[in-house]
Amino acid sequence: MSDCCSTDQTSPASVTEARATQTADKHLLIVGGGGAAFSAALKASGLGARATIINDGLPMGGTCVNVGCVPSKTLLRAAEALNRVQSPGRFAGIETTGQLADFAAVIRQKHELVEALRQAKYADVIGDDPKIKFIPGRGRLIDARTVEVHGGRLSGDAVLLCTGARPSVPAISGLADVPFLTNESAFELNELPESLLVLGGRYVALECAQIFSRLGSRVTVVQRSTRILPTESPGLTEELAAHLKAEGLGIVTGVAVQRVFKDGPGVAVEAVVNGQREVFRASHLLLATGRTPNSDGLGLEEVGVKVDADGFIRTDDHLGTTVPGVYAAGDVIGEPMFVYTAAYEGALAAENALTGAARSRDYTALPWVVFVDPQVAGVGLDLVQAEAAGHDAEASTVPLSQVPRALAARDTRGFIQLIRDRKTDRLLGARILAPEGGELLMEAALAIRHGIAVRELASAFHPYLTLSEGIKLASLSFGKDVKKLSCCAA
After folding, report:
1. What is the pTM of this model?
2. Which of 13, 124, 289, 346 is buried deepest, with most CB atoms within 10 A?
């Protein structure tokens, strides 16, 4: 059985087998129990070494399966299912009705999925492997080869720190006196909030906001920046904001929060918006203002492992820390903070630590998705980034109203944008706003990774009435007006 955080971006099998003979007697100590830890342990076992996972805090599996990816995505799907039946009118002659009958039942089903995946993809994966040992408990570095847990000491040939990150709690006046939610506690509620204020405007904030809005809460997103998803282009974020507002989600940007205080049974946020004092009120407050690394209490300072100003562990390109023999991977070292990059880093760190290799991270074509509806998906550079990097870049944007699959589905929200280098015709990046837009990413990611020219994407077969045909149309539109092309255009 494969682990849900497995990665095959490692050495070829023949090289791995050869190195296994060199690592058979080695022992990797892993502090942390999420995706990076399990991927590292499996890589160590595959190399013939032993691995000991020492985990405290969240249960086995870490953020992704327990309080992150799995619960958020299943609740997003539940909310989407309800939204679809409550929003008739796309197809003539069809009427639907739907209601949230039992919020607690939705949460119970989420619990069941989390528990099932935690067992199947974590506990069962290592349960039959004699080379991997799991110890519940808080680990602390004693030196570059020793970890203390439960008052005893374990020795190994190398240590890997992958303790993850937790929701950040900003320094806001009054916040300590007001009950608040994070994504971790929000997914544990048994009663739907009547109303919800969400502080933050990036992916965690928007996903949580849409979940609760579609399930029936009155939701307002309060964002410090002038736009939601502020690192993306204005055209993308403004269109996304318009779609979210159209379904009833409140979004207020450019907000300078002054204080938080109790408001009867609820909570209030006093802020300055466009120079004017405003007070936002709701029954519940949810913080989605970033992530804080779990690097405290690990003995880093005593051993000499350096962290940055925000507490993230500093590593080189080989995932080595400032102390030889101590490596780090996953969210505790900072961006990018995805479970699949954590798994990649965990395996890479384990191989480097056990074999003496010096393989570097490579994020040349890293795809990412924000799982709101419509989804925001990207890989590579956007147009501004490409021009800043010195490329003679241009963008091609095809609205979904020009994609036959979207027309047939009567859901034309969004667009597909490709960015290429004019001189080389190489694809540099993609930005997609579309229902299920994340499913379109891998064609673009592979084209970037392997240097496939945009003309090759345009000439490749794309089945008619698939959303992926939009990639072909965007490729064609660098030189043609898609509005003047026939269906199945070549």
Report:
1. 0.93
2. 346
Computed over every residue of the chain, the mean pLDDT equals 94
Cross-strand pairs, 219: 196
Same domain assignment for residues 159 and 308: yes
Do 202 and 272 lie in a common domain? yes
Is 373 within 8 Å of 452 (Cβ atoms)?
no
Q: Is residue 76 part of a domain?
A: no
The answer to whether 54 touches 37, Cβ cutoff 8 Å, is no
173: β partners: 259
pLDDT higher than threshold 80 for residue 383: yes
Q: How far apart are CA 163 and CA 55, in angstroms?
A: 8
CA 119, 188, 71, 289 torsion-angle sign: negative
Give 356 or 13, the one with higher predicted confidence. Answer: 356
> What does the pLDDT read at residue 482?
85
Distance CA 358, CA 126 (A): 27
CATH of the domain at 19: 3.50.50.60
In the three-class reduction of DSSP (H, G, I as helix; E, B as strand; rest coil), residue 73 is classed as: helix
Rounded-to-integer distance, Cα 82 and Cα 276, Å: 37
For 191, phi then psi, to 5°, come to -125, 140
Q: Is 290 exposed, middle or buried (0-12, 13-18, 19+ CB in 10 A)?
A: middle
Cα distances from 87 to residues 18, 209, 247, in angstroms, run 59, 18, 9
- Can you say whether residue 179 is alpha, beta or left, with left for phi > 0 and alpha for psi between -120 and 50 degrees? beta
Q: Is the dihedral of CA 312, 313, 314, 318 positive or negative?
A: negative
Strand order in the sheet with 427-434: 368-370, 375-380, 427-434, 415-421, 393-399
In the chain, % of residues over pLDDT 90: 90
148 part of a folded domain: yes
Mean pLDDT over residues 71-96, rounded?
Answer: 92
**Could you report the per-residue pLDDT of 411-461, keeping only the tens digit for each?**
999 999 999 999 999 999 999 999 999 999 999 999 999 999 999 999 999
For residue 165, the model assigns a pLDDT of 97
Q: Is the pLDDT of residue 7 over 90?
A: no
Q: Are 224 and 273 in contact (CB under 8 A)?
A: no
Domain with 28, as residue range(s), is 13-65+107-167+292-355
Cα–Cα distance measured from residue 85 to residue 405, given in angstroms and rounded to the nearest whole number: 21
Can you tell me whether residue 252 is helix, strand or coil?
strand
**End-of-domain residue from the set 289, 320, 345:** 289
- Under 8 Å between Cβ of 338 and 170: no
- What is the greatest pairwise CA distance in the chain? 73
Our count of domains for the chain comes to 3
pLDDT in tens, 9-25: 545 454 555 555 567 78
